[in-house]
Amino acid sequence: MALCSELRIPFRPISTNFKATKKIPTRLSCSRQSPDGDDEPPRPSDGLKKRISEQSSWETKDLEGRDYLYRLGQEADNMNITVGARKGIVDDLFVGNFLGRDADIVFDYRQKVTRSFQYLQGDYYIAPLFLDKVACHIVKNYIAHLLDIKVPLILGVWGGKGQGKTFQTELIFRAMDIEPVIMSAGELESERAGEPGRLIRERYRTASQVIQNQGKMSCLMINDIDAGLGRFGNTQMTVNNQIVVGTLMNLSDNPTRVSIGQKWREFDVTHRVPIIVTGNDFSTLYAPLIREGRMEKFYWQPDREDIVNIVHKMYAKDGISKEEVETVVDAFPNQALDFYGALRSRTYDQSISKWVNDIGGYENLGKTLLKGRKSGDLQTFVPPEQTVEALLESGHSLIREQQLIVNSRLSKEYMKNIDD
Fold first, then answer.
1. Which of 105, 264, 347, 392 is most deeply buried (CB count within 10 A of its CB)?
2. Beta carbons of 168 and 130 less than 8 angstroms apart
3. DSSP letter string over 73-114?
4. Which residues are bridge partners to 297 per DSSP?
């Protein structure tokens, strides 16, 4: 008989004709006898997965059933997808000298920085004047070598706040099947000098690679450029601001010769990529950058017909007729396009408050909302029925808030000791 600790326990086979309600791994230091009388090491019970180690957390699963190694590979930038096939990380036998330094030669192309517009579902209105200007600028740059004229590389779309400059441009990209590279003003500054300028050149070359490798039209778009490069009052000009301005000017003058740090090579010629920038006030930008020949300016101020058509498409799912849209637009003149989008959002407030009460109130909102989203048992939200009266009521509420901000000027009350 085998010994378990200091007790002699006869080994008897246990019947397996039952269903365990919960699988609990057993930790026994017992040995069992083989038919020959020799001791054998303990074996895990039937149906139990053998763990690497009882003290290891590598096999711990998250809520989605994925272990720690999977998460680490997804989150870390130095796992096998990046350096696992690189020279010096693994043995040269597996890398192969014929592939050069990096065996993973397509890694750079997996870093997709281009933008697709699958989220733009539905039928939207594109202003004809806006479409004509953007499409003409893109086409002129693609056939610049056939034209005996100076073609500006940059198109500057500017105008009042909330007039749909970026959204209209994205709709045009979708309609023309363009896969652009999009940047924001927040990427035009960095703690490292020269980094934003280098980033612009890299993104420009990425758009050129889209044209060459994918056979699709592309462009570089920088949103709200005046927020990153504009001079407001006593704001300070940084080295990165100067380098970004110089980079854009250099791209305009030499659109097919773009370096990101390597030595100049005669055969390193990139495709000419049109650049589109948006902003609210281009008078704050460096004047030589926006001069004729480098930047073509387009002031976008939608007229009443454009606003009515755009808002009508916005409210099409709610069954609001074009005549009713005209009533709403005429009730709030001189408002930007985003104002009419805010009207529709404001009409949801009462319905959302009622829905919160139906699912248990604000006190239990955290548990109910998060658990319901994970399990899929969250109560369905029924959107409210849109009416002209509800839209007008929401509009007057927004107007009161706008006026309150203008009239109150609480900063004057807080800092009375500071002169104007």
1. 347
2. yes
3. HHH-SSSHHHHTTBBTTB-HHHH-GGG-SBS-TTHHHHS--B
4. 156
**Residue 21 corresponds to which amino acid?**
T
The phi and psi torsions of 5 (rounded to 5 degrees) equal: 55, -120
Euclidean distance between CA atoms 217 and 211, whole angstroms: 6
Cα 158 to Cα 39, 184, 228, 277, 300: the distances in Å are 84, 15, 14, 8, 6
* d(C-alpha 139, C-alpha 172), whole Å: 13
Does residue 11 surpass a pLDDT of 70?
no
pLDDT tens-digit profile of 137-187? Answer: 999 999 999 998 999 999 999 999 889 999 999 999 999 999 999 998 989
Distance CA 230, CA 280 (A): 10
Q: Label the pairing between strands 295-299 and 275-279.
A: unpaired
350's enclosing H/E stretch is helix 349-358
Beta strands, E only, 110-262:
154-158, 181-184, 220-223
> What whole-number distance in Å separates Cα of residue 376 and Cα of residue 174?
33
State which H helix or E strand residue 7 sits in: strand 7-8
Q: Count Cβ atoms below 10 Å from residue 182 Cβ, excluding itself.
A: 19
3-state helix, strand, coil in the chain (%, to 5): 45, 10, 45
Per DSSP (E only), the strands in 312-406 are: none
Rounded Cα gap, residues 258 and 264, in angstroms: 9
Cβ count near 3 (within 10 Å): 11
